Amino acid sequence: MKITMIGAGYVGLVSGACFSDFGHVVTCVDKDPAKITALENGKMPIFEPGLEALVAKNVAAGRLSFTTELASAVAGADAIFIAVGTPSRRGDGHADLTYVYAATREIAASISGPVVIVTKSTVPVGTGDRVEDIIRELCPDIRIEVVSNPEFLREGAAIGDFKRPDRIVVGTEDEWAQGVMRDIYRPLFLNEAPVVFTSRRTSELIKYAANAFLATKITFINEIADLCEAVGANVQDVSRGIGLDNRIGSKFLHAGPGYGGSCFPKDTLALLKTAEDFNTPMRIVEAVTQVNDSRKRAMGRKIIQALGDDHRGKTVALLGLTFKPNTDDMRDAPSLAIIQSLKDAGIQIRAFDPEGMEIAGPLMEGVTFATDAYDAAQGADAVALVTEWDVFRALDLPRLAAGMNAPVMVDLRNIYSAQEAGRAGFTYTSVGRGTLPS
Ligand code: UDX
């Protein structure tokens, strides 16, 4: 199969590299010449475990290439994937489809034979219809089908998720297009990955419903965590106790500082807009977005409280800035809201993140950056664990405490226990692990 991937961002690059690894010939197109030159030189624009090696292997095998020239890349393609960004539109929260439609028009101007066009970007219900209209209008004599094929990749685990998916969703009722999609995903079909063939609109909605449900699950357990703190219960045991019920499932029940990242915040907002457009309000999802937003700020207050009344002028060491481990992505990271509330309260911040500091730097005026966790904690009045990177899971706690002005720890990811932190001399606060009032 000859595949063109439009957009060499997170989704496009991972998907393109994985498709080439299946044996297909893939060309990734991106408008950004600097990105393409970097990729040609083996440099990845994002941090994703395993990606660099996968790209290098398939480039060397002659199956994967990069270009800025869309027209030549789509010539003779069996399938063209649209994997451009669909950020939140400034002001109203709708998904911004400018890049999707621009790519669609460019595709229409360049194709000459039958081709399946696949939307991989997360797009609101009905976008595939519009993509089809645009192409049919501009190319009335060419056989095309537009398929929705959402991705469910988690950053930091994207290659594994692509190659061992829980399911593949293919939104098209056209037999020819279904056949092309079967050929493209053949190795996964042979491994018996579950496939949901459905209508295009349903497929588009599945993506939003999945992300909104997961965001709801996280937000639910976060509110239970608050209640645990109030009543002297333990949220981790609640998660285990409810998660063992197969109908609930144990995943996505880790209480923390609120969800962030490139998908949940924007997709929940976009789903709310779609619901509004179709006069079917989604009150649960609306509450989820509000609760999650206020939670991020509440985490700042939690740290301030741990510092005590005279917190002004004190220093907090923040460990972890990215929205989750194994990524350098800072989009909607809880650390951003936490830092803002600390700064507003006159608190100094020393931060360390294994991969995120380059991107975080320009977003965090006034924050000093450290070389590791111990350097960050040097002279600090509290250490706050914000992202659960592996390097923070086995810290030498006595060493960390020894360098601090006051050994206070606020563990927003429940990495440690009160006992082990206490043994190292820390005054310890975590999330949803309440103690009985004495
Ligand atoms: C998510 C979806 O999982 C993926 O299927 C979709 O395609 C894109 O969005 P990603 O944004 O990479 O992937 O991150 P994910 O691992 O899902 O975590 C999202 C956020 O939820 C993070 O901020 C994480 O810290 C938080 N989270 C996750 C929790 O707070 N608790 C949990 O139990 C799980």
Could you explain the architecture of this structure?
This protein is α/β, with parallel strands linked by helices and 438 residues long. It folds into two domains: 2-198, NAD(P)-binding Rossmann-like Domain (Rossmann fold), CATH 3.40.50; 199-438, NAD(P)-binding Rossmann-like Domain (Rossmann fold). It is built from 18 helices and 14 strands. The protein has a six-stranded parallel β-sheet, sandwiched between helices. A six-stranded parallel β-sheet has the order 11-10-9-12-13-14. It starts with a strand and ends in a 9-residue tail after the last strand. The model has no long low-confidence stretch (mean pLDDT 96). The structure holds uridine-5'-diphosphate-xylopyranose (UDX). Uridine-5'-diphosphate-xylopyranose is lined by residues 151-155, 211, 214, 218, 252-254, 256, 259-264, 323-324. Pathway: Nucleotide-sugar biosynthesis; UDP-alpha-D-glucuronate biosynthesis; UDP-alpha-D-glucuronate from UDP-alpha-D-glucose: step 1/1.
